Every structure is written in structure tokens, then in C-alpha cells.
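Why this split exists: single-chain examples teach little about how molecules sit against one another. For that reason, every record in the complexes split bundles all components of an assembly together and asks for one structure covering all of them. Below is a record exactly as it appears in the raw files.
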Amino acid sequence: MPAKRTTAATATPSITKSLSSGPKTLTANSSVSEIVHHVWQQYLTTTPERTMLLDAFMAFLVLIGGIQFVYCVLAGNYPFNAFLSGFSAAVGQFVLTASLRMQTSTDKAKGANGMGVGSDGVSHERAFADYIFGSLILHFFCINFIN
Amino acid sequence: MQLWHTILQLSLLAVTAAPTAAAASAWGFTDATVSVHAKGAGVGSGLKENIPDNKALTKPVSLGSTDTLKVTLTAREGRSAKRAHQVFLLLQDPETGLDISYPFNVKDNGKSRVELTQKDLPVQFLSLSDPLNAKLLIGSFGSSEAYNGAAFKLAVTRSPDQPVPTVEVSRYGKLPEIHHIFKDDPQNPPIVITLAFVAMVLATLPVLAGMWLFLGANVRHLPNALKASPIPHTVFLGSLLSLEGIFFLYYQSWTLFQVLPAVAVAGTVAFISGSRALGEVQGRRLDGLR
Amino acid sequence: MRWCLSLLLFCFLAVVNALSSSGNRLLVVLEDATEKESYSTFLGDLEARGYNPVVESPKSDKLSLFELGERAYDHVLLFPPRSKGFGPSLSPKNIIEFMNKDGNVLLALSGKSTTPSAISSLLLELDLHLSTDRSSMVVDHFNYDIHSAAETHDVLLLQRPGQLRPDTKSFFDGEGVLAFPSAAPHTLGDSNPLLAPILSAPVTAYSYNPKEDFGSVEDVVASGSQLALVSAMQARNSARFTLLGSVESLQDKWFSATVKAPGDGKESETANRDFAKQLTAWAFKETGVLKVGKIEHHLAQDSEAPSVELNPKIYRIKNETVFSIEVSEYKYDKYVPFEVPENDALQLEFTMLSPFHRLDLQPSGKTENSSIYSTKFTVPDQHGIFSFRVNYKRPFLTSIEEKHEVTVRHYAHDEYPRSWKISGGWVWIAGLWSVVAGFLAFVIMWLYSAPTSTASTTKKTQ
């Protein structure tokens, strides 16, 4: 995960700046709730809006996959092929969206700077085109398999 | 065939029972005793019964697994004791008609003796619940009428802890029917649970919409995009929608060979229009609008 | 012209062969030609039924069961030999070989003469046992003819045999009394299921050796109904071997004798002639010969559906299948519909290594000379190479062994129910299409969503 590390490193000045209005800085002996709260605040302040929308979509996919999995546990896996394709559609879409997030997520400053290129040198639009291509193939296979 | 034998025997019994038929020249017996003594027990112990002349014993005689059955009699032709050619103890299963005879040891003066144990019996007789019919057959050549009469009933007793021997003889015949037992068809879960979960799954779409609205998702760039490059954008979106529509038709009824050309056409259109449309999007991003 | 002639010849041969289902060449082996006279009615009856009896002495040089490696006769009737055996051309090995080539043998013995050890060893091969001295004779002091055997009691009077078992056909039943003079008894071994007794001695009968008599019998190997007088063995190739204990019962004298049992006053005519006809008819395959006609299996069809494919090579699991077999029985001169005996059943097995189904076939139709048995069943839910098997082996009937292989396949991919028909899968179908819908919404949102100015303030207030 070198991408994340660089993001974090470059984001450091903005954190200190925005955290000045935040509750308090993290210390070595902070409680668990404090850590969680701190991480959440940091996520809210440092994530670009577009990435947050993408995260909402990923949360939706987790939710839909979870419901399908719980149903399988509760009611049995018949017909199994339907379970496999329904569940793997959610999981596969999640994985694809996660790759899109990795390729397009830049911090606010960088995004504002208008570089528009992911850490591995792929433009956001190219990454999105790949994402659509992959998703369509995934849908085709799932629909084929669900019979 | 067995039926015929029993009928024959019955008729013969009737015949022999009739005292009129030439009483002077009929075979019979006298001084008949039947005794059962267990192995190891002293002489005189155990059961000993006298069989009345030319008649049957009423009580059944039981023969245990270590007992020896002994029958003695004196064969008589008419009034005089005489050696008969055939002095047999005939055991017969009343149910199946299965029979076996044991010849007596006959002396010249007609005195005859036979001993038998359970080892001498055929295995089929060892597992019977009803007592066997024991008959005496006395006959010889010449014109004298032969004797065939019931003597006693023989109950074969076995101790319950001893296994009953069985015979298995293979014979061609009808075999038991076999019906294949099918695996159960898989069962659908209760429809209520299914519908509840369908509702939950469908409810995630409004949840997604709500989250997006909360986070401020919008389509405010759509007019701009359409103004900048109308054809690529409409065609791109349209081809994406039609690709998913083709997938839906494939799910519903289409075959693979209907789907593949349609996907090839829509995919090419989506590729060409997509590169234009995404170029426009990139332009917007480079302008800092995104 | 030529095929016309051969057709004519064929028809002619068919007429000549009309009697036995397996040919009319009969070899009668009789040592003493003068004896032939006493069997004239018996042999005449055989001739009248279409056989060509060739009477030969076992000592004859030209006597051979085989000619150029093939059977020279279809049936052999062996009268008891006077000398030590039948000679080299009728050795036990040759007789067995003759039966292996589907020839039928009827061997008659007599209690008057000692049976040669060669014959005893032949019988031993078939699990038929003679007494060890081979010269025993059956007597019964209760069922003898008082006219001819008042002193010796060796002419047994017997009822005609009925059914061997409740589930067999009786080929030898009828009215009347049989007279069996000086019968040589035999016993049946346990190890040969192909053996079946036809006629047994009465319960009160026993056997003894008249030459070694000591006033009374004290050692009997078998007695009563364990002594068989007539027995049959039908080999796996349906060749028949019949053993008749009393050759004298075939003599003219006993074909029309008047006999009287001790005790009951009735005089009766012997039924030996009728029994001899039944016995030779069975032994030489005029009766009890089964023939399988059409065998059909196909999918069970709905009432109005058009004709389905007959005898397909492949079935799917859980197919409803109908199997039918046409069986006819040869009866003296023609094939008649075969009726399964009352407590018996013609059974179909659907097997792969072991039977998955074994079903009784039910009569479903009848033609002029055959009856059709059929059953309907569901193909097991197991794919593989199966076979329809009808294995019908019963005493006195030639065996039926039919095996027809078929493939049983799984459901094809388009034979399963579609996913929406299974209510259990609705959740996952909804999940899949929700993902697709969410994906489309996400694409639109990603392409056209503008950053909101209020976004940062929203975040801060959270």
C-alpha cells in the first residue's frame, strides 16, 4: 500500500491545520473511543467528496452482500448457483469499486492542484473506463450463472 | 403332490383302522414303548410311556437337544409276532408334509428297536414350532395288510440360547421387488422469509440514494456535458443502458448466440462514444470543475 | 425361381419340424432289438408326433452323437443298458458334450438290472445320486398293484404329479394312476439348482436291494418322498436331461393295464401312456419352451402425444419409462401366449452393477400366440450405463435372459427450472439486479456530479 502512505505523508500539514478546530489531538494513552473518533474525524476532513460518494456505494455493496449472506445462512443455499452469482456480484462489484477508489482517490489539495493522475500514472477517466469494462463482464457472468 | 400324499395317508389310515379287513392277515404291533432319557442321567429316569397296541399316544413326547428317543415294539402279523421287512418310524411335519423314516432294528421274533437324537433329525425339523407327527410303518411282502398309524407326537425342544440352524438352498424363483429410493427434491425456504429478505435487498437502493443525497451527490454537470459534447454523452449512456438491457433479455429468454452480436455492436459503440465522453469529463476535471 | 424353391423347401421343413421346437431327429438307444416290440406303442406315439426315431444298439459301430462336430440328433432316448455301459460313443463325456450343444437326453433306468457305473458317474455330474449298490428297487407295502405284484409289492401305484411348488407350472398333471414297475430310485443333491423332481415316491415307500436282502431293511439312505422316481435337469443353455426310474412303465403292457391298490376296492386304468407323452414332450422340448418376441422400451407418453421414439439409446434421470416384453410358450405344435404361474412373476431389473429397480411385469396385452408384459417406472436419479434385464429362470421352463443397455444422462443445462421459478432464489436475483441498478446510478453520478460548495461545512458540523 505505498499509495496510502504517500497520501498520508503529503496530507500531514492539512491535518494539523484543520485539526486545530477539532476536539483534541491524539495522545499515546487515548481511549479506544477516542481513537475511533479521531480516525473518523480525520476521514471526514481529509477525504474528497467524490471519494466519499464512492465509499457510500461501497457501503451499499457491503450491505447488499451481507443481507444475501445472512439469507443463505438462515434459509439454506438452495438454489446454490443463484446464491453464488448474487453474492459474488456484490463482492465482485465491491472489489472493482475498491480498485477504482485506489486509482482515483487523491487528497483535496492534490485534486485541486489538478494533477488528475493516480499514483501509478493512470488517469481517472482511463481508470473509470476500465471499471465499466470490468463491471460489465462481471454482470454478464453473474447473469449467465444465475440461470 | 404333498396334498396327494396326505390324502393317501388319510385313506390308508381309514383303511387300516377298519377292523373288518382280513383281520388274520394284517400287520400290527404290541408291547410298544417310547422313552426319552437325557444323556448322563441314570437308566430309568426320564419319560417312559407305553403305546397301546395299534393305537396312538395322546400326550406329545418332547425331545431335548441332548436326549435320546427310544422306541421299542414287537411287530405282529395277525396274532403272531413276526419279523417284518419294513418297520419304520416315520416323522412328518404336519405343515409342509416333509417326511423322513427311521428303520427299526428288527430281530427274528419281531422285537424291534430304534433310537434317535436331535443329531439324526434333518435341520428343517429343528426349527419347527408345532410337534411332528410320528407314525409307525409296519409292512412286508405278501398279502398281509401293512400297518400305518400315528404313534405319538414328537415335540423338538431346543434351549433358547442355542442358535436354530437354518438351511439355505438356492432355488430359482421370484425375487423381492426393489424400488429405487430417490433423493428428496430440495425444498424452498418459507416464502415469508424470502419476501422479507427481497424487501430488505430492494430497500438498500433507497438507502444508497439517501446516503448520496446526504453527501451532496448531484447531476449538475449534466447540462454542461450535454452542451459540450451532446452526441458522445447520450450515445455512451444509451449504449451502457442497452448493454445491461441485453443482459436482462439474455436472462429472460435470449440465447448466447443472440446476445453475443448485440453485445459486440453495443460494446463497440460504447467504446467509441465512451472515449469521447470521458475526454470531455477529463476536460472538465482539468478545468477544475470536478 | 431358386429362392421360390428354397422357400417352398423351408415351408416343408417347417411343417415337418412342427412338433418339437428343437428338431425331430431322435436317437433311441436300445441294446436288445427284441425288446423294441414291447415298447411299440410308446415309439409309435413318438413317431406319430413327428419324430424320426432311429433305433440303434449301443454296440453299433456307426453310432455317434456327432457328425462333423455337430449334433447328429436333436434328442436321445437311452434305454437301460444290459452290459457294463453304453460303450465309447455314449460315454458320459459325449453325453455332456451333446447337452452342451443343446441336445436333449431322456435316460430310463430299471430296478431289475444293476445300473452301470458309467451312468452313475454321469448322473453324479448332474448331482443326481443313485444308491451305492446301483441296484436298488423301490417297494411300497401301501401303494402297490395287487394284480401284478401281490407278493413282491414292486409295482408302485402313484398319483400324477401336480405342481412342484406353488409358483411353478405343472406339465405332468392329470387324472389317473401311474404304475411304476421295478423302479430304480435316485435322490437329488442340494448343490444343483437346475434340478427339479418330477415324480417322487410315496411317503411310505423305501428302497432296498433285492439281491442283498436280510429279512428286513435296517439301513436306508433315503426313504419316502426323498426318493425321486422321475427327475429333470435343465441346463443353463436350456438343454434338458430327464431321468426316468422305471423303463418298464413305458412298455405297452403298462400303457393299458388295469391296476388295483390294496385296501380300496376300485380298479383303475393306468395313465402311463398319457404321462409318457407329457414326459417325452417336456424332455424333447415340446412344452415349457419360452420365446421372447418384441422387446420395447420408450418414454411414457401423454395420452394425446404423438408416437415417441422406440428403444432409445439414452434416457434422462427421472424419466417415466415403459418397458414391455412379448413372450410366447411352445405347446406341442404351436406357440401360445405365455401365462406366468399364479404365485410367480416375470421381473424386470433396471441395473447398473446391481439392480436399482426390480419390478414385476404385468400382463398388458395378448396376441394370437404371445402375451405382452409391461411395466412403467421412473428412471433412477443416477446417471450411467444401465440395462433393462429380464432374467427368468424357473423349473421346467427354458430360461429367458435379456439384457438391453441404455445410457442414463443427467439433466441438460436447459432442462433445469429457470431461476425465477424457484422462490428460494428470489433474494439473490433481487441482489444481482440491485447491484446492476446501483452500478448504473453510480456511473451517472460519477460522470455528472458536481462538487458542492456546502460539502466542507457539512463535514465540519458532523
